Structure prediction request, 939 residues.
Amino acid sequence: MKLRANLVIGGALFALAILVGLLAPWLAHTDPIMDANLMNAEEAPSWTWWFGTDGQGRDIYSRVVYGARVSLTVGIVSQLINSVIGVALGLSAGYWGGWWDDVVNALTNLMLAIPSLIFALAIMAVLGPGLTSLLIALGLTNWSFTCRIARASALSLRSQGYVQAATVLGYGDMRIMITQLLPNMLGPIVVIGTLGMGSAVLSEAALSFLGLGVRPPFPSWGSMLSEARDQITTAPWLSVFPGLAIFLTVLGLNLLGDGLRDILDPQSRSRRT
Amino acid sequence: MTGSPLIEVEDLRIDLNDGSRKVPAVESVSFRIDRGETFGLVGESGCGKSITALALIGLLRPPLSIGGGVIRFEGREIQHLSAAKQRALRGNRIAMIFQEPMTALNPVSPVGRQIAEMFVLHKGKSWREANQLAVDALASVRVPAPERRVKDYPHQLSGGMRQRVMIAIALACGPDLLIADEPTTALDVTVQAEIIELMRNLCAERRTAILMISHDLGLVANVCRRVAVMYAGRIVEERGSADIFRSPSHPYTQGLVASLPRLGSRAALGRTRLKEIAGVVPAIASFPDGCRFNPRCAQATDICRTTAPGTDLLGAGGLVRCHHHA
Amino acid sequence: MHEPQGRPDDDLILSVEDLAVHFPLGGGLLGRERRLLRAVDGVDLSLRRGECLGLVGESGSGKSTIALSILGLLTPTRGRIVLDGQVVTNRQSADRKALARIVQIVFQDPYASLNPRQTVRRTLEDPLRVHGVTAKSEIEDRVATMLKHVGLRPEQADRYPHEFSGGQRQRIGIARALILNPRIVICDEPVSALDVSIRAQIINLLLELKETLGLSYIMISHDLGVVEHMSDRVAVMYLGRIVENGHWREIFERPAHPYTQALIAAIPDPLRHAPLATTGGDLPNPLNPPNGCAFSPRCRYAEAVCRSEPEPTLETRPDGHAVRCWRSDEIAHQTSLAAT
Prediction:
């Protein structure tokens, strides 16, 4: 067996990010918000301040560690919402067809035509900034790819013998969709979901950067970047470390998604020769 | 005619590379086909019949490769020819038709053009001449209104018509050997009869030898003069087609003949329980030791489980590979 | 075999009356003519308890369309299907469950017909739960008994389909079809996707189960050898219609319709190195069927009457044998002359 490097590296990076978020209170040296001390303002990285400090003397390392919580919560929860919406719409549209399929298709095309970040911006504008609005905005705007994949899978699976057999055995539509179709389309859905998490992390950063995400002083990688933009030449560590955290997490998720695609590919799974 | 065969396969071995090791998918396969002869290769899925044919035509692709043995075409070894030389042989001297003509034909090119291409490629004709020859070729495979049909695309034709087009392409350059891999499996029985008769008559007229590959022993025995039965990568029996059904010698062949409900047998003998061959067809990676049929064979003894049987001669040129053959 | 008692209708478990299934193809937009595919067009069939009815014909003849209509997977355009005394043609989706306990199907492809993500146990237990069997011990008993019936060991129940060979998978497919104790099983080419050396096992199993469980079969196959071996009666279809219907022995020994004759003659005789009997031409395009008798363009007995409207009707002889051919009497006379 060839070791799949993308799967291993991607999984490790993603697991590391989750661990950091979970263990933040133990990993952080100081409280990310309260421990401001103007005596230590804008210290460069050193043995005392691993990632340096910001203008208010807060430890960047501790803020990056706590920032993982926001970024990953947004990434995981909003993508979960997207996956559930996308699968529910796509699966039912592909299985039932007819007018419902037309409606879902129209909706999907609409979503694909509007850039999702702009759409999320509009929702944020209505809901106001904050973590909950962020989850809702990103969770409602990025389901169209999942929906397309789910619909296409349902269309092709629906004519499989075992789905017909379930119909003949008197299974209800819900049961057929959940027990017969869903488990057999999970592979590509998981892959899309993993890649989607990466883009949700980026979107969170972008929205927070624009000041629409998590409000200061609470740390998120995006808001840290946003605050750091004026000091990019004088105190580059303020933007480098949160930027690096975003980069490594998104890279990890993308590698993981690629790796999962490799092993979940139905062609390599089939035993038929 | 000289005594030398058109094609001769000696001790052919085809390896399947599964990443860490090479497993023989086909082993110790030897047969010969004379000019104008009809020869059948029969067996179940995974027995190696189709990859043997691909080896003859130089179309084995990784993870499959020739692991040993010799393939001679008109006395010349062809198993290690360069890709260019194999291409020249393919289509021109050795042609092949497949089970599903829809996948073997180019869907975006009119069928006439696909036939004409053969004349341009292998006979150096101009497109103008080749197009005329394509109409003649379609007429020769009894496609009605060939001058109109040449403009059709594959999807506009029925399954039977598509297989006729495949035959027209295969026979365009007057090959010496036509390999037909399950040529009628996807077709209905009355259409199968049409296609088989067409193939048989055209090849007889042109003295083209046929290597027919099928899972259908009855069909092959009817079409071919000699039949070889393959099981798990080896030829277990080779006989004249009349003998193989009347007096099969290998227990596997006996089982195959007895297990098929033959038309008319119920009327003659009443409904009897069909004879079953126990067990399952082994996968390539788990071919058993000794005689590969031994786990399913009622007559198997200790020697069958340890030692692969050699080839024994039967009367009338038959061969069998069994320690206890009839 | 016992003789049917009482009114002959009591013995009927299935009757299909004037069934028609038409599929509209292509829209009427852009001046394109809207075409109608008459997949099944006026079919009458009946199945008695304990009987095996063979349904024979080439692709596009409508065999599978009939099966799907009986199973409730297709809505017929016209006609009636009566199952065990109940008209089921215009059923609501709610009684799909009631239908499921009467008729089931064994599919052709044992690979595509099992859910790769479900163990054998799950595949067999779920239908019982859907149909209101809740007692854990009863469910386990019935699954174990069914596995034994189809020749699988109980400890194989927790495996997934890919761990089984094609023949074993088909046994699982048969177990799934029988787990609800249906009265009728439609066998749609049950052995044609299997390796030749495995087919006899499945054919024997199906015949055994028919006897032990008192089942009735509709056996769809293009393999006439299998049909002859298994069927009590045989219906031959051509382009959406039945052209001949009768006792298996009559169909195979004295086929009356030229198409049935052609089908039988086209089967290669392995004992003779002889040309196959050809019929002439391919199947006609079902979207543009010939005038008159649909088989007339390929029929060697066809005369002017066969090529003009109206098409022949299915005439039932006193012995119950039915033939759709204007000239069947003359043809029978000719063939009997030729035989002597």
